[in-house]
Design goal:
Layout lengths: L1 H7 L5 E6 L8 H15 L3 E6 L1 H6 L3 H4 L1 E4 L7 H7 L6 E5 L5 H7 L6 E4 L11 E4 L18 E4 L8 H16 L5 E5 L6 H13 L5 E5 L17 E5 L5 H7 L2 E4 L4 H7 L4 E5 L5 H9 L3 E5 L5 H14 L1 H14 L4 H6 L5
Helix pairs in contact: 5-6, 7-9, 8-12, 10-13
């Protein structure tokens, strides 16, 4: 695989993506990098993902859509990448919470430019471009953490979404304006394993006796939940992870999900949502989106999760003005064109 890529290096610039996914951390890092890789390929780049077996298991279909460099032996040792690409690459893309300036500096002898994707602003980086799509993020948050020459691309304006979200945006927003009342709820927590949270969500919806269709979209690590029993009176459809999340979100009237990458997908389509925070790194994102009026936020560790979910749903289900205001606020946050804005920084 690597040999073929080095041959193509004579004709096209090469980008290596180091991103990770697993049952514990979910698949958001890899999914946003896949969006960027797609845009770079359209601009003449060859993009390869350097991943380990845990990532391949967590991200369904990765081997069908991306060239891979296997990193099962010490996957986060930069010397492994150096040995695989001794002639160097044009761009290293890092989307990994365990990477910082130390590892990035060690990649400098073979990576001509380094792009870091982050949403924590909690450690130094040695990069040329840094993308942080968090709402409200400012340059001050990275002061002293990146080199003076680093270009900072901050906020949902640079959210790395697949092109189909922008393509469906107008139709989705128009449908929400014309909608008389909500009927369809989308439940999706990405690729991480969230069985207890999913159970709480389904029980809360069932207890409300709503006239609702519920679509539960599962990640690759949750395949055994396909046989989840249908609680109460809700009309539940359980889907393995679908490649058409833009279509699912466009058809939904409300969403319940985590506060990761899918937050910006929901915003792009003006989809009012209940964000259930399932990881510490999601708290800042969820709080900012809620403060903007684009979502209602619930902590998964709270003792009254089911009652909080019921209250949030009842509010959006019955208050048409609140629903419309939340849809407008969400749509104002993200237009879905961030991937092209980032890719435009890298000419072929």
């Amino acid at each position: 695989m690597a040999v073929a890529a080095r041959t193509s290096r004579q004709r096209r610039p090469v980008a290596i993506v180091r991103a990770a996914a697993s049952e514990r951390i979910g698949i958001g890092h890899v999914m946003r990098c896949r969006s960027l890789a797609h845009a770079l390929r359209q601009r003449g780049w060859t993009c390869l993902f350097a991943v380990d077996s845990a990532t391949r298991r967590a991200v369904a279909g990765l081997e069908l859509s991306d060239f891979l460099v296997d990193l099962d032996d010490n996957p986060d040792d930069p010397s492994v990448l150096l040995a695989t690409w001794p002639d160097g690459v044009d761009l290293l893309v890092v989307d990994h919470y365990e990477w910082d300036a130390d590892r990035e500096v060690r990649c400098r002898p073979w990576a001509r430019r380094v792009l870091v994707i982050d949403d924590l602003a909690d450690r130094p980086h040695a990069c040329d471009v840094l993308v942080d799509q968090t709402l409200g993020r400012t340059e001050d948050d990275y002061r002293g953490l990146v080199p003076s020459h680093c270009e900072l691309l901050l906020g949902p304006e640079f959210a790395l979404l697949r092109p189909e979200f922008a393509e469906r945006r107008h139709a989705a927003l128009t449908r929400r304006v014309r909608m008389e009342k909500p009927r369809r709820i989308l439940v999706n927590f990405g690729g991480g394993r969230q069985d207890p949270v999913i159970r709480d969500v389904l029980l809360a919806i069932s207890a409300m006796d709503l006239d609702a269709d519920v679509d539960l979209v599962l990640g690759a690590s949750e395949a055994d939940l396909l046989s989840v029993p249908q609680p109460g009176k809700i009309r539940l459809r359980v889907h393995p992870r679908t490649p058409d999340m833009a279509g699912m979100m466009s058809a939904a009237d409300l969403a319940i999900g985590a506060g990761g990458v899918s937050t910006w997908e929901r915003c792009c389509l003006g989809l009012p949502s209940v964000i259930i925070v399932v990881a510490d790194n999601q708290r800042g994102i969820a709080a900012a989106v809620a403060a903007a009026g684009a979502a209602i936020t619930i902590d998964s560790r709270g003792p009254e999760k089911q009652s909080e979910i019921r209250r949030a749903l009842a509010l959006l289900w019955t208050d048409r003005h609140r629903y419309a205001a939340m849809s407008r606020a969400a749509a104002a946050i993200c237009d879905g064109l961030g991937t092209q804005r980032v890719a435009s920084r890298f000419s072929s």
